[in-house]
Design goal:
single chain; 806 residues; mainly beta; 22-stranded antiparallel barrel; five-stranded mixed β-sheet
C-alpha cells in the first residue's frame, strides 16, 4: 500500500511541475536510392493543417525544427526534381527529441520550377517492393489494442495475416505455415527472435524484440523482391534505430509483464556517435498473485537486452555495432496439481523443465561512394539453445478426492543448439533517374548440435522403459544466396522491378539456380495505383528435421533418414489496386494465387504434409519423407484505413481465402491454417486534456474461421496418452469460429522535461472461450469423463503498465 501511495504521489508532483513549451524534431534527408545527403530540401512543419515552421537541410542533409508544439504534427519534405514526402502523426512529447529521417525519390521527368508529387500509399523502405508489402511503424505496435508491443502480434491486424492462437505470436500468412516466415535484422536472417522458442518454429508466447529499439521496417506477405530468399510465406525485415547523438534520454517502465529500462545518448558529441541500450526483466508473478489465467499455473521467467553503438565516419560512411539476447525459463509441474487441469504449454502426464537462450551480435558498415552508388554490409554471429528435461508423473486419487503423487520417472532429456555466422552485403547503383541496380549476397555457416534421448514407453516392446537416442548430430553446413535486381522507371507513373535469386544448401546439396521475380506498378492518376507481382521462392526445411533417427529391432539408433530433403518451393501471383481518397482514407485490395510444390510428405501413403507444421510447443518427429507434396493458397484481401487525423483513426482488414494441400495419399484436404476468412476492425480515439496531455481509447474486434481437426482414434490415444487422430479423416471437421474483442486505454502526461504514460490493455474483454483444439487429460478423478477434452485459448487478460521518459 505504501508503494502505491508513493507511485501516485510521484505522478501528481510531476504533473504539477509545469509543462514543456516545445520540443525538437531533427534528422537527415537522403536520396532514396543512393543514400547521398540532399542539400537545400524544404522541411515544412504543419500543426492542425497550418504551416508553423519552414527550414532547409544543410550541406550534410541535416535539418532541425525547434520549439515544436507537443502532440501530433505533420512534416513535409519538398525538393526540386524529387517527389514530395509527407510524414503524418509525428508524436512529440515533452521528454524526448524526435529523430525523423526521410528518403526522397528522384523524379524521372525533371521540369523546372515544378515539384512532382507522386501517390505512394504505404511506401516501404525497400525500393524494390511492388506488391504485398507495407511499412511497419513503431507507433503502430503501441496503437493497436491487444498487440502488447509485439511486432508479430501487431502484424496479425494486416490483411491476409492471422495468429495461430492466443498463447503464441506465430504469423500465419495466406494459409502458409508460420515456419515459412523469414525474420531479418539489419539484413541478417535471424533464428527464432522469441523467448520459450521451440525448435522448428518462428513464434512463441513472448518476443525478445523490444519496439523501443526498432526503426520503421517492412513486412511482406508474398511475391518478395529478389533479395529475400529461403522463405515461401512472408518476410519481416527489421531495422534498428540509432540513439540520440546530441542529448541523453532515459525511459523506465513497470507493469504486469515486468520491468524495462532504456538509455540513449551521445558517446562523443563532436563526432556525432551515439549509443542505445535496453533491458527487460519479467517473472509474470503478478498474474499468479492476482489469479489471472495466462494458460498455465507455472511462473515463466525471462529477460532480454539490446545495445547499438553508431559511429559516423569520414567520407559519407558509418559503422554500427549491435547485440541482442534473451534468457527464458519455465518449470511446468503437473505433479503439483490436485485436480486435472488443461495447460496450453504442457503435456498432461509429465513435469517439464524448459530453458531457452538466444543471442545475436554484429557489425554493420555502410558507405555512399558517390551520388549514384551506396553499399551496406553486415557480419553477424548468433546462437540459440533449447534445453529440456521431462519426468513422467505417477499418481492416484487420495481419500480427499485430490491427486496424490506416487513417483517421478525421468523420461526425456534434450539439448538443441544452433549457431550461425552470417555475412550479407548489398550495393545500390543508380545509372540514371530511370535505372537502379541492387545486387548482393547472403552467406551463412550453420552450426548445429542436437542431443535427445527418451525412454521407450511402448509396453509391447522388449526394450520397455529403456532409453534410446533420437538425435545425436553435430556439424556445420552452409547456405549461400546471391541475387541481382533492377528497377526501371520509363516515366514517373510506370515502374518495373525485375530480379533473380539463387540459393544453395550444403547439407542436402540442394540447389535452386533460377528464381525469377517480377513486379510492375502503374500510377493511374487521381491517387490510384495498380500493381502486379510474381516470383518463384524456395525454402530449406527446419534444420533439426534432417537429423531425426529411427531405431532398429535392438533399440539402436539408425542413421538420420531425411538428409536428402530438398527445398520446398512456391510460385506466387499477386494483383493489387490502391486508392487514396478524401485525403485521409486509403483503400487497398489484393488478389493472389500460390502454388506450393516439393513439399515433404511421408514415403508411405498418409495425409501428412510438412506444410502443416511450424506451430505449437512440441517438436516434430518425422518418418522418412520425400518432396512429393503440393499445396494451393488463393484468396482476396481488402484494407480500408482512415489515417490518424483530427484525433482518431480506424482500419478494417478482411480476407477470404482457401488453403489446401495433398499428402502422399494424393487427397486434397484443408490445411491446418485454412481459416477461410479473417476480419479485423480497429480504431483509436484521442482526446486532449489540459492542452498538453492526451487520453486515448482503442478497440479491436477479430473474428475468423475455427481450427480444423479430424475424428479421434480413441484406442491409440489411450495407449499413447495423447490425442491421436484418424489419418483418413484429417482436417474434415472444424471448430466454432474464433471471436475476440480487445480494449486499450492510454493517458500521457507531458510534464516539464519528462512525460508519463499510464496504460491498460484488456485482451479478450468478453472472456470468450475460443477452442484451440483437443487435448488428452487423464480421467483418474472421474472414470466416466472422456479423456479427450476441448482445450481453450486465453481468457480475459489485463495488461497494465506505467512508463516514464526523461
Amino acid at each position: 500500500m505504501k508503494n502505491i501511495f508513493l507511485f501516485y504521489f510521484f505522478i501528481l508532483v510531476s504533473c504539477a511541475s509545469g509543462f514543456a513549451q516545445g520540443q525538437v524534431i531533427r534528422g537527415a534527408v537522403t536520396d532514396y536510392d543512393s543514400k547521398i545527403p540532399l542539400t537545400g530540401v524544404n522541411v515544412i512543419l504543419y500543426k492542425d493543417s497550418i504551416i508553423s515552421k519552414v527550414v532547409a537541410t544543410d550541406e550534410n542533409g541535416l535539418y532541425r525544427l525547434d520549439a515544436v508544439a507537443l502532440g501530433r504534427n505533420k512534416v513535409k519534405f519538398s525538393y526540386l526534381g524529387y517527389e514530395e514526402q509527407t510524414i503524418s502523426n509525428v508524436i512529440v512529447t515533452s521528454a524526448k527529441e524526435v529523430i525523423l529521417n526521410a528518403a526522397l525519390n528522384e523524379s524521372v521527368n525533371v521540369i523546372d520550377e515544378v515539384v512532382v508529387t507522386a501517390f505512394k500509399p504505404g511506401e516501404t523502405r525497400n525500393e524494390m517492393a511492388t506488391v504485398s508489402a507495407r511499412p511497419f511503424t513503431i507507433e503502430e505496435t503501441d496503437r493497436y489494442a491487444g498487440s502488447r508491443g509485439d511486432p508479430a502480434r501487431m502484424a496479425s491486424n494486416f490483411a491476409g495475416v492471422q495468429g495461430a492462437d492466443d498463447s503464441r505470436n506465430d504469423i500465419v500468412i495466406r494459409g502458409n505455415s508460420p515456419g515459412g516466415v523469414l525474420w531479418k535484422m539489419e539484413g541478417v536472417p535471424m533464428l527464432n527472435p522469441n523467448h520459450f522458442n521451440i525448435p522448428g518454429t518462428t513464434g512463441s508466447p513472448v518476443t525478445i524484440l523490444n519496439n523501443k529499439f526498432l526503426a520503421n521496417s517492412d513486412f511482406f506477405t508474398g511475391a518478395f523482391p529478389a533479395e529475400f530468399g529461403n522463405t515461401i510465406s512472408g518476410v519481416f525485415d527489421l531495422f534498428q534505430r540509432n540513439g540520440n547523438n546530441e542529448k541523453y534520454e532515459f525511459s523506465g517502465q513497470v507493469g504486469f509483464l515486468g520491468l524495462e529500462a532504456m538509455a540513449e545518448g551521445p558517446i562523443l558529441k563532436e563526432h556525432k556517435s551515439s549509443f542505445l541500450a535496453t533491458y527487460r526483466y519479467s517473472t509474470l508473478q503478478l498474474f499468479d498473485v492476482l489469479g489471472i489465467d495466462i494458460g498455465t499455473n507455472s511462473i515463466p521467467n525471462y529477460q532480454d537486452g539490446f545495445f547499438r553503438l553508431n559511429f559516423p565516419l569520414k567520407k559519407n560512411a558509418s559503422l554500427s555495432v549491435f547485440g541482442m539476447g534473451g534468457l527464458s525459463k519455465v518449470d511446468i509441474l503437473i505433479s503439483d496439481q490436485q485436480k486435472p487441469e488443461a495447460d496450453l504449454y504442457a503435456q498432461s502426464d509429465r513435469d517439464q523443465y524448459f530453458n531457452s537462450k538466444m543471442g545475436i551480435t554484429g557489425i554493420t558498415y555502410s558507405k555512399t561512394f558517390s551520388a549514384r552508388t551506396y553499399m551496406k554490409a553486415t557480419v553477424a554471429a548468433q546462437g540459440n539453445a533449447v534445453i529440456a528435461h521431462h519426468d513422467l508423473v505417477y499418481r492416484h486419487i487420495g481419500s480427499d478426492g485430490n491427486y496424490a503423487l506416487d513417483s517421478l520417472l525421468p523420461i526425456l532429456d534434450y539439448t538443441f543448439k544452433e549457431s550461425r555466422i552470417s555475412a550479407v552485403a548489398a550495393i545500390n547503383h543508380k545509372f540514371n533517374s530511370h535505372w537502379l541496380m541492387k545486387a548482393g549476397f547472403s552467406a551463412e555457416a550453420l552450426l548445429y548440435n542436437y542431443m535427445d534421448s527418451t525412454r521407450n514407453l511402448d509396453s509391447t516392446s522388449a526394450y520397455y522403459y529403456q532409453y534410446y537416442t533420437r538425435w545425436d548430430s553435430k556439424g556445420t553446413t552452409s547456405l549461400i544466396q546471391p541475387y541481382m535486381q533492377f528497377k526501371y522507371k520509363p516515366n514517373d507513373r510506370l515502374t518495373f522491378n525485375v530480379g533473380l535469386h539463387a540459393q544453395y544448401f550444403g547439407l542436402s546439396n540442394s540447389v535452386s539456380l533460377f528464381e525469377p521475380r517480377l513486379g510492375i506498378q502503374y500510377d493511374l492518376g487521381n491517387n490510384q495505383l495498380i500493381a502486379f507481382g510474381t516470383g518463384l521462392h524456395s525454402q530449406q526445411q527446419n534444420l533439426y528435421l534432417y537429423f531425426y533417427r529411427l531405431q532398429d529391432s535392438l533399440n539402436k539408433p539408425l542413421q538420420p533418414h531425411n538428409l536428402d530433403m530438398d527445398f520446398t518451393k512456391s510460385m506466387h501471383f499477386v494483383g493489387s489496386y490502391s486508392k487514396l481518397f478524401a485525403e485521409h482514407y486509403f483503400l487497398k485490395a489484393e488478389v493472389y494465387y500460390q502454388y506450393l510444390f516439393n513439399v515433404p510428405v511421408d514415403t508411405l501413403t498418409s495425409s501428412f504434409s510438412l506444410i502443416n507444421t511450424g506451430v505449437g510447443f512440441s517438436r516434430f518427429f518425422p518418418l522418412p519423407l520425400e518432396n512429393a507434396g503440393t499445396g494451393v493458397n488463393y484468396g482476396a484481401e481488402l484494407t480500408l484505413q482512415r489515417v490518424f487525423y483530427r484525433q482518431y483513426f480506424f482500419m478494417i482488414t478482411g480476407s477470404l481465402f482457401q488453403s489446401t494441400y495433398k499428402g502422399s495419399d494424393d487427397s486434397a484436404r484443408n490445411s491446418d491454417f485454412n481459416a477461410q476468412y479473417v476480419l479485423n476492425l480497429l480504431g483509436t480515439k484521442e482526446f486532449t486534456v489540459r492542452k498538453k496531455n492526451t487520453f486515448s481509447i482503442g478497440a479491436k474486434l477479430t473474428t475468423e474461421g475455427g481450427h480444423w481437426y479430424g475424428p479421434v482414434d480413441t484406442l491409440q490415444s489411450e495407449i499413447q496418452k495423447e490425442v491421436i487422430y484418424q489419418d483418413a479423416g484429417r482436417n474434415s471437421l472444424q471448430f466454432a469460429p474464433y471471436f475476440r474483442f480487445d480494449l486499450k486505454f492510454n493517458y500521457r502526461i507531458n510534464a516539464k522535461k519528462m512525460s508519463h504514460e499510464i496504460g491498460l490493455d484488456l485482451v479478450n474483454v468478453f472472456d470468450t472461450q475460443n477452442i484451440l483444439g483437443l487435448t488428452y487429460i487423464p480421467n483418474d478423478d472421474d472414470p466416466s469423463r472422456s479423456v479427450i477434452q476441448e482445450n481453450y485459448q486465453l481468457g480475459r487478460l489485463p495488461l497494465f503498465y506505467y512508463r516514464i521518459d526523461f
